[in-house]
Amino acid sequence: MNARLSAGLLITALLVTGCGGGGGTQTATTTPKVGLITKTETNPFFVKMKEGAQKSAQANGLELMSAAGKFDGDNASQITAIENMVAAGVKGILITPSDTKAIVPAIKKARDAGVLVIALDTPTDPQDATDALFATDNFKAGELIGQYAKAAMAGKPAKIATLDLAPGVTVGQLRHDGFLKGFGVPAGDPSVVCSQDTQGDQSKGQTAMENCLQKAPDINLVYTINEPAAMGAYTALKAKGREKDVLIVSVDGGCTGVKAVQSGQIAATSQQYPLKMAEDGVKAVADFAKTGKKASGYTDTGVTLITDKSVTGVEAKDTAFGLANCWG
Amino acid sequence: MEATLPRRLITTPVAGPTIALVLASLFFALNSPQFLTGSNFSLIIQQVMVVGTLAIGQTLIILTAGIDLACGAIMAFGGIVMTKLAVDSGLPPLLAVAAGLAVCAGFGLVNGLLVMKISLPPFIVTLGMLNVVFALTHIYSNEQTITDLPPLLTFLGQTFQIGQTNVTYGSLLTILLFLLFAYLLGSTAWGRHVYALGNSPEVARLTGIRTRRLTVGVYTLAGLVYGIAALLLVSRTGVGDPQAGQTDNLDSITAVVLGGTSLFGGRGLVIGTLVGALIVGVFRNGLQLMGVPSIYQTLITGVLVILAVAVDQLSRRRNR
């Protein structure tokens, strides 16, 4: 009885699996495939990226396979995904590497098997470990909000808090350095009174800002790695009644973030375009499948400063444009 | 005769999982032309060997009615110790590996001593240890991934040919480890003592088993096995990665439970754990080949775990 029951339950599970597959598996042999591997499955940035890949795959007559790590930094799952996609016979793989160094040997194996590998959003270390890179210029993204902040402060002496990403992550480092360059201060300048890691997380951003305000109550400019961190900072400032006289600038351009710019909680943000990264990446794989020509080098997918309080000397678009082009 | 087969299926906890593994494999073979190939099976074994090896240690501990939440973290630290000593400190690779194994066994020993001496619940001890070891890994590695490993550290990731199929030495080692522990648990006095301890520590003690020493021994041995998993991980990925293993504690428990070992101790087989690990690997690989997004793999693994525990509970009720 019990054996039969357990077998029955397991068969049911298998049937459930069948439904999850959603059919369409028999066409697999004819349509060329493209794989997309993101850092996680749930971050809106990657959801949008997958949407762009799906749309572009349909338009270019490719079948999209997707996979993701379980958490940001999950290298093992990305390796497994690469292996499985190569086994499934993909023409090309688009990957947002979770660990820019640790993924390199697995990418090399895929390329040795004749698969075109393109990094999206985040370059590998070294960058030429992939055939090509489609990404935001993160340094420029930081530089833009740095220039904006410099103009918006209008000569007022700055006490800066930087809410950064995490140690050793290139994207975070580039945005931070770009911000300082744009603002015109060297690294280690005394005007940067507090720097904290937030993992780009709202609640960690809030905690970081609270701690920064304990350390230096007169902070008047906050750089944040992304808008969730910025919203965390805003919440912390609001609790102190400081939300009106502190300038918050950010990078990313997600829809929630642009709305926060619209409502004035964040002064300005640099918007990036994950949809375009994925669309262009899939198209490059389609070209490779048709012509055998591999994409190479770095393709800048663009970044735009979004603000409703524009300053002179820094080019920007308003939040209407931001909302029309946002992700998430 | 009719009554004996189901009866035997109930008393052999590995039967259900094995049936599930076979059915799942059949299902994927029918749905994906790439599934049923030697190279794909070799791939699946490579993909499950790290969690599978961790799950050997986890099985030992769960058989004593304990649990280990720190196994993935201990492995990650072991991997960093091996790679950092060999690459940054220039230690001979063999010594670096030995140091990594010793460090992992050492953490196992500490876990065992805390469980035994202070009678803390294993869940709490290993939860604390998870955080301690995680932090130590990040401090010691300075958040840096270690690359350019000497050949000895990546040897287990190298392949040899069986027929047309490339097999890694690590896969072979993993299977040998499973056979070794199946023998140790099934055919030695030590193995019987482990089961007895899990069934009832009090009865085990009264029958003359030195339960405290046995407990410390099991945790230490599990730690050593995590060290071997660390070497497998390093050889598979080709780097020392401080971020590694973060969900492997739960993945190893998943393999143990799917393999029919009872979370309440004293009941289960280490070969079941291998089957459990393979079930997860087969689903992940098969669904990927079919083009199903990975979030469904998580969904299905969750459903399978609940089913496995339900089957365990139902069969216990039946046995009573």
Word description of this protein:
The complex is a heterodimer of chains A (328) and B (320). By secondary structure, chain A is of the alpha/beta class. Chain A contains 11 helices and 12 strands. In chain A, the strands form 2 sheets. Chain A has a 6-stranded parallel β-sheet, with helices on both faces. A 6-stranded mixed β-sheet of chain A has the order 7-6-8-9-10-12, sandwiched between helices. Residues 13-28 of chain A have low confidence and may be disordered. Chain B has helices at residues 4-11, 15-31, 38-63, 71-87, 93-117, 122-141, 151-154, 169-187, 189-199, 201-206, 211-237, 248-258, 270-289, 294-319; strands at 159-162, 165-168. Chain B is globular and about 55 Å long. The mean pLDDT of chain B is 92. At the A-B interface, helix 1, strand 2, helix 3 and helix 4 of A face helix 1, helix 2, helix 3, helix 11 and helix 13 of B.
Multimer state: heterodimer
Molecular shape of chain A: elongated
Quickly give the CATH architecture of the largest domain in chain A. Answer: 3-Layer(aba) Sandwich
The CATH class of the largest domain in chain A is: Alpha Beta
Described by the principal axes of the CA atoms, the overall outline of chain B is globular
Helix content of chain A: 40-55%
The computed structural class of chain A is: alpha/beta
CATH topology of the largest domain in chain A: Rossmann fold
Number of helices of chain B: 14
Determine the strand fraction of chain B and express it as a percent band.
under 5%
Mean pLDDT of chain B: 92
Order of helices and strands of chain B: HHHHHHHEEHHHHHHH
Q: Which spans of chain A have pLDDT < 50 for at least 5 consecutive residues?
A: 13-28
Largest sheet of chain B: 2 strands, antiparallel
Extended strand count of chain B: 2
